[in-house]
């Protein structure tokens, strides 16, 4: 039996779990473990995700039972928080590692990782880094100002609003924030993890 959830409930649940100090269930996976398994279309047959509510109201959705991240970057439609301009897979600069950070602006672990990354910006300046959230864009807009000023306005770093919940529908449903997904220049998944890691390990994974 499939269970339906409203996305606000999912967001609250993730935020609660992510901001505790229990790291025993943090998962790191590589493409070796998921080779040949493309979950980009899993659990979506017959689901119409068209926007039927006002832009600021999250529509009820069915949370897919995706147990592992997709092995290659799927098509998606996010929106730049600062400008509202649509951002898709075609807009990702080629030839670099690409990192998606699924986060909640109120999550302490997300704030801490962002602050640490900001202080080490020179080490990640050649990586595409995309912060993605389903939260209120007003909260997202001030996130870098509050917790990562060195990342604000950088050409390789973008804050993206997931208005239609594309991430959990097409990429993965994590159990903790922040959830980091590192894809290579070829678009293939290299590694991912949920929850907080040391900044040395984060940078090593981003740049490997």
From TrEMBL:
Residue span, Thioredoxin domain: 52-208
Ranges for region Disordered? 23-60
**Which PROSITE patterns would you find in this protein's record?**
PROKAR_LIPOPROTEIN, THIOREDOXIN_2
The alphabetical list of record keywords is: Signal
From which residue to which does the signal peptide run? Answer: 1-20
Keyword presence, Signal: yes
Domain of life where this protein originates = Bacteria
Per UniProt, the ranges with Basic and acidic residues bias are 31-48
Output the PANTHER family linked to this UniProt entry: PROTEIN DIPZ (PTHR42852:SF13), THIOL:DISULFIDE INTERCHANGE PROTEIN DSBE (PTHR42852)
Q: Could you tell me what this protein is called?
A: Redoxin domain-containing protein
The organism of origin for this protein: Sphingobacterium hotanense
